[in-house]
Amino acid sequence: MNTKSKAPRFTQRRNIVLLAVIILVTMVAYVARPKIPIPPDSVQNVTELDAYLETLVNSGSPPGLSMVIVKNDSIVYSKGFGWADRPRNIKATPQTVYHWWSITKIPTAIAILQLQERGKLQLDDPVSRHLPFFEVAYPSDKRTPITIRHLLNHSSGIPDAGGMKLAKWIHHEGEPPLDQTVLIERVFPDYITLKFDPGEDTAYTNIGYMLLGAIIEKTSGQNYRDYIEQNILVPLEMTQTGFKFTKEMEAFEAAGSHPSFSLMSPLLHLMIGSFIRETSNGSIWMERVYTDQEPPSALIGSVMDASRLVRAYLNKGALNGNRILSEESIDLMTNHSHVAEADDEGLYFFRRGIGWHIFKEKGGYKLEHTGGGPGFFTIMQIYPADNLGLVLFCNDITLENYGWKILQLGAGLNWE
Which among 23, 48, 169, 219 would be 20 to 30 A from 8, CA to CA? Predict the structure, then answer.
């Protein structure tokens, strides 16, 4: 018997069977995935908005959400829907605490502008003036110095970290936070080769905001966490927001989740399996997650606290007599340093600005930032010309394609 000739055929059959099983499992996951009720084009009143949001959480994805709307410095809408943590019987409310993830970049950008107001830096300073370790490899011989402004509007050319890397930059409850300057100095050599010449394009990068965190530490003499708390969170009385879960947050804590049946579920077990707490009610429920890279994505808090940041922004930098930015800095953040992508064909208006993503609406600009990471999706929008702001936080990532449209439903109602 020629066993050598049979071995390759056996291996080939085994691989075909394995591939068939993978395809079958993928098809089952796709069919069994939660069907998100697509947002309508508009709603006529709050009752219709509430009805849609109830239908959304009843679909199971997301299990819970909280939403707040600010108009003319007043909170005109604040509600929670569904479950912050269904296995622990915690309902979602406006006070529910979620991970902000990338919306953290807005306080980071505000901190940089504060330091410019205090004469500690200028937006057009070369990054190397403040961070001696900062060196990059240019794609051409232009060698334009990368400035703080380039980091703020993602026009530096510095690449982003991939999803696998970001999944590794998280840690469990009880593990100490990392020194942010030490962290970025250690990992930056992996990101020194620029994707494009500074200022000639824009591409989203968390690495750029990690560098901004180091600049905040260098120019303020404080660690990043302390600076943000003392100069933004405390003046705005954002008492349910911070960089770690506190005893006061526990009764309002949302658990991150992910649908049990989805294409990402097997990868979730593979990439961050130690953060999975349990699987029940059609969802994978997660333990507390902390991110190592704080300036791009580490804040934790409620939509009610986020609404205080929105109100301060709409009030030209102040809230209840406490000023966090000058009117000039708010104007700079809103109206200037907008950068279009190099291949922008003008089909719709999209720019990256200082912190914000900028869209053009009928009445002027819409400022927006989203956040997404293990277990959570968040979105914040501000319409400066209409004195309107909206915030939506939820405890899974399945709304990342529809979050903007849900907030559009609220923005389209008459809140006068």
Answer: 23
Q: Which helix (H) or strand (E) holds 83?
A: strand 74-85
Q: For residue 397, with 0-12 CB atoms within 10 Å meaning exposed, 13-18 middle and 19 or more buried, which class applies? A: buried
Give every CB contact of residue 148 below 8 A, 6+ residues apart in sequence. Answer: 112, 121, 122, 123, 124, 125, 127, 130, 212, 215
Whether 273 contacts 258, CB under 8 Å: no
Q: What integer best gives the mean pLDDT of the chain? A: 92
CA–CA distances in Å: residue 144 to residues 64, 92, 155, 161, 194: 46, 48, 12, 23, 11
Q: Find the distance separating the first CA and the last CA of the chain, reported in whole Å.
A: 87
Q: What are the φ and ψ backbone dihedral angles of 390, each rounded to 5 degrees?
A: -140, 145
Please report which helix (H) or strand (E) contains residue 330, including its range.
helix 327-335
> What CA–CA distance (Å, rounded) separates 236 from 319?
7
Q: What is the pLDDT of residue 6?
A: 56
Q: Taking the CB of residue 54, how many other CB atoms lie within 10 A of it?
A: 14
Name the DSSP class of 111. H
CATH architecture of 108-230: 3-Layer(aba) Sandwich (3.40)
Q: Does residue 265 surpass a pLDDT of 80?
A: no
- Token pair, residue 326, equals 């000058």
Q: For residue 13, give every residue at least 6 positions away whose Cβ sits within 8 Å of its Cβ, in sequence order, or none.
A: none
In the predicted model, is pLDDT for residue 52 greater than 70?
A: yes
Q: What is the pLDDT of residues 78-95, one digit of tens each?
A: 999 999 999 999 999 999
Longest dimension (CA), the chain: 90
What is the residue whose two structure tokens read 């993978």?
22
The pLDDT tens digits of the residues spanning 358-390 come to 999 877 999 999 999 999 999 999 999 999 999
Superfamily of the domain at 40-101+236-261+293-411: DD-peptidase/beta-lactamase superfamily (3.40.710.10)
Task: Determine the length of the chain.
Answer: 416
In this structure, how many other beta carbons lie within 10 angstroms of the beta carbon of residue 248? 11
Pairing of strands 64-71, 388-394: antiparallel
What is the bridge-based pairing of β-strands 376-383 and 388-394? antiparallel
Q: What pLDDT, in 10s, does the model give residues 144-199? A: 999 999 999 999 999 999 877 888 899 999 999 999 999 999 999 999 999 999 99
